[in-house]
Amino acid sequence: MNDLELQLHYPLGDALPEQGRCIEVAPGVKWVRMALPFALNHINLWLIRDAMDTPQGRLEGWCIVDCCIHADTSMAQWEAVFASELEDLPVLRVVVTHMHPDHIGLADWLCTRWSAPLYISATDYQVARWGCLGPTAFGGEPAANFFALHGLNAPEMVAQVKARINYFPSLVPAVPTQYRRLLDGTELQLGEHRWRCISGYGHAPEHMALYCESLGILIGGDMMLPRISTNVSVYEQEPLSNALALFLDSIDKFKPLATDTLVLPSHGNPFTGLHTRIEQLHAHHRDRLAEVLVACQTAPCSAADVLPVLFKRPLDLHQTTFAMGEAIAHLHKLWFDGVLTRNEGADGVVRFAAEP
């Protein structure tokens, strides 16, 4: 556990749900943990005791929050959870915090499996549907050209990114054809408790965290993680975005929540110390921005130039694409703040330089 983690409190200690089983983190709220085939090797998913009024009377059941990637192993893990944890009750609805594959990948399967509606923000729903349409919806030549513009132009790397054409559809082959829209401030009555949606930006198009005041719980999704900083990136779909400013503004929306709020993150263990973690994330990005500024004061830098400034470890292709997005996000924050200039050189590479 690093020094920053020691400033947080983990009420469940090192306890982790067994495969196919849950840990109850609060009355009617269960924690599911599933494996992922990435460096970030797991995702936390949540079951919330639910009920719905129907013409036939009140129907008791469960709400699933987030889904895991579409994979046979993930479906098998869900079936084990259904057999052991649902208390012979159905799944009534599926809530997805955002459109990244580990969160929405199995939404279509789950909604079909239980005849349950999908709840998600309109922005993330539409982007996910677009991502399912074809092999180059995310990645491929558009991504390779964008990263080359920002200095990742070695022929072998360009070829690797161009070849990465089926990433999203392989993990999210389909999304439900209908959904129910979540907006900032939307309140969901899940069983005995109301959960309020809190929108967030910079990590996903329109991420929705869920806060239950009566239980003192925040399902933070990827906007509030205890051990790692959330990926905040600029990509080719929105090439001039100020993603980092959006993210930092978004996490400040959690400041009015109670100091003893139990945060249920998508990765890592449930923790308390929300306000401490918000300040840690601000400090982390202030430090990274300062390092990037120093580099750009020494010489004009592309995003590829600042990769070793921001990331001290070797990166594989999957990690490099995320790292490039992060590097551009930090450079753009300084550029939008008027600290750096942005210019495209005769070699077709964008570089950022400190204002004289």
From TrEMBL:
Protein name: MBL fold metallo-hydrolase
SUPFAM superfamilies xrefs: Metallo-hydrolase/oxidoreductase
Domain Metallo-beta-lactamase, chain residue ranges per copy: 42-267
